[in-house]
Write a structure and sequence with these properties.
Elements lengths: L2 E10 L2 E12 L4 E5 L4 H4 L1 H11 L8 E7 L11 H11 L11 E3 L2 E2 L5 E2 L4 H10 L4 E5 L3 H4 L6 E5 L2 H10 L27 H13 L3 E4 L6 H6 L10 H13 L15 E2 L7 H5 E2 L5 E2 L1 H4 L4 E4 L7 H5 L2 H6 L1 E6 L2 E6 L3 E6 L17 H8 L4 H4 L4 E4 L5 H4 L8 H18 L13 H4 L12 H9 L4 H17 L7 H12 L4
Parallel strand pairs: 3-4, 5-8, 8-9, 10-17, 10-18, 11-14, 14-17
Antiparallel strand pairs: 1-2, 2-4, 6-7, 12-13, 15-16
Length: 505
């Protein structure tokens, strides 16, 4: 037999596609040709596979070898095709009967010694195989636990090419995925550790309940970073679908913790202010990789010292915040990544950042305007809550009374989210922050004129944009959900205006 075929999976962005690895061996000048839009790593596979095959005790066929990756129009990236290429090549040479691998997806990178190395992106690859109707997959032993989280699949691991050859030829055993329960997660920062700042705590709770973006502006030591770091602790755990999305993104980025379990906690990303645009929104040569906003999908993206970020990096966030996804287009194709994260900005009110606050600020008015002006109007218009924090007082810092813990606040957040999900089920939405403005302004959700009179005055005066009008309404719905009311009233709308504009702080 001079022809063989083995199934594999290729990734474009976070989307997997079933790929057929074909091997044809013909008489002629010995050599290996790979077709099907391979990248550099795949071109180098010919040398890795040759060394791995020989060092695993198998005979390398001294013939002209043509390897084709179908569909040939789909770009192929990475080294996950190595194991499938090796098996297809041995099958085409007659060394292996490939009937045991019929309908089986094979993934893995080969070392020169024949060892099978873990690869990135196994979870979305295996999920794509399951959607295509595949029922069995063979993956590197280091990825077996990660692949096993996809339901309806029989997953087996291999640590060497020799083990896989033994399975195909003689029915030898493969490695079962680990079944041990994951260790309990270490406790994270708790909201009870934050002293004072009642307005900041309220804003954090509203942001968590409705999925709203948040800006915290205040002097050093006011608690901006402490509040932001505790936002994930009051968010509900991720449901199965969201957990698969988040885990797949971290798998592609190579950031999945050891053990490969589903990530149930909302992720938290806090890039340094020197971060570049590609590191924030995604990029890189060849296939664009997910950036911080995609790694924070279903969680929190925190930009501390936000005015110190480059203008290009900040402005690049505007489209993802609006649409919840990032489309990265490169010369070799595009990749789309989900990016529905909650943005939290923290900023000092001025360059001098006097800990005493505005009372002792030494900056001229022009310097203050120029500093916060680094956060552009279009970007801030997309931030639902813009809260100004005051300096901490001794009485607040030394207050002996215990503050509410994250668990207590998380209970209210969960109840508010459940109420919103039930209300918006007909619109196929779950969070107040996701509801389109036109739906909020039509029956049966349109608020009566007596409750929105203050909001209408601000819109007519130009102090609030049409986008800001809709975002205040969304905030009002979240406030009503937290307080257990079926609909917002005028007081809810007024509080939403204060949280939106930073007034009354």
């Amino acid at each position: 037999m001079s022809y063989a075929r083995v199934l594999c999976v290729g990734l474009v962005g976070v989307t997997g596609h079933l790929v057929e690895v074909e091997a044809d061996l013909a008489p002629g000048l010995p050599g290996v040709v790979i077709s099907g839009l391979p990248d550099t790593a795949l071109h180098e596979a010919r040398d890795r596979v040759r060394a791995a095959v020989v060092n695993s005790g198998q005979r390398w066929p001294n013939r002209r070898i043509t390897l084709n990756l179908l569909p040939a129009t789909l770009p192929k990236f990475g080294s996950a095709f190595d194991l499938a290429i090796a098996v297809a090549l041995l099958g085409g040479s007659g060394e292996l009967p490939l009937l045991p691998l019929e309908g089986v997806v094979v993934l893995g990178e080969l070392g020169l010694d024949g060892a099978v190395r873990p690869v990135r992106g196994v979870l979305p690859m295996v999920a794509a195989a399951a959607r295509a109707g595949v029922q069995r997959v063979i993956v590197p032993a280091g990825n077996a636990a990660e692949a096993a989280v996809v339901p309806g699949l029989r997953v087996r691991g291999v640590d060497t090419l020799h083990r896989l050859v033994g399975f195909v030829r003689d029915g030898g055993p493969l490695i079962e995925p680990p079944t041990d329960a994951p260790p309990p997660a270490a406790p994270g920062p708790d909201l009870s550790e934050v002293a004072g700042q009642g307005l900041g705590r309220r804003a954090l709770e509203v942001a968590a309940a409705g999925g709203h973006h948040l800006a915290l502006i205040g002097p050093p030591g006011a608690g901006k970073t402490m509040l932001a770091e505790r936002l994930p602790s009051i968010l509900p755990e991720l449901e199965d679908g969201a957990a698969l999305e988040v885990t797949a993104l971290h798998s592609i980025a190579g950031l999945l913790p050891v053990g490969g379990r589903l990530l149930r906690r909302p992720p938290f990303q806090a890039p340094h202010h020197t971060a570049t645009v590609p590191s924030i929104v995604g990029g890189g040569s060849g296939l664009a990789r997910p950036g911080a906003i995609s790694l924070a999908h279903r969680g929190v993206l925190f930009l501390d010292e936000a005015p110190e970020f480059s203008k290009a990096a900040l402005e690049a966030l505007r489209q993802p915040l609006e649409h919840g996804r990032v489309l990265l287009t490169r010369s070799r194709g595009g990749a789309e990544y989900p990016a529905r994260a909650q943005l939290v900005l923290a900023a000092n009110p001025c360059p001098c950042a006097n800990p005493a606050g505005d009372d002792r600020c030494e900056c001229p008015p022009l310097a203050r305007r120029r500093y916060l002006g680094r956060l552009s109007g279009p970007l801030l218009d997309r931030i639902d809550l813009q809260v100004r924090l005051h300096p901490m007082r001794a009485a607040e810092l030394m207050e002996p009374a215990a503050h509410e813990s994250s668990a207590v606040v998380a209970g209210r957040v969960a109840a508010a989210r459940q109420a919103a999900a039930q209300r918006w089920a007909a619109l196929d939405r779950r969070l107040n922050a996701e509801i389109p403005g036109p739906d909020l302004r039509r029956s049966p959700w349109r608020l009566p004129a007596r409750d929105t009179v203050d909001l209408r005055v601000r819109l007519d005066s130009g102090s609030l944009s049409a986008r800001g009008f809709d975002r205040v309404i969304r905030l009002a719905w979240t406030i009503a959900d937290l307080d257990g009311r079926a609909r917002p009233n005028r007081e809810d709308v007024y509080e939403a205006i204060q949280l939106r504009t930073g007034e009354g702080a």
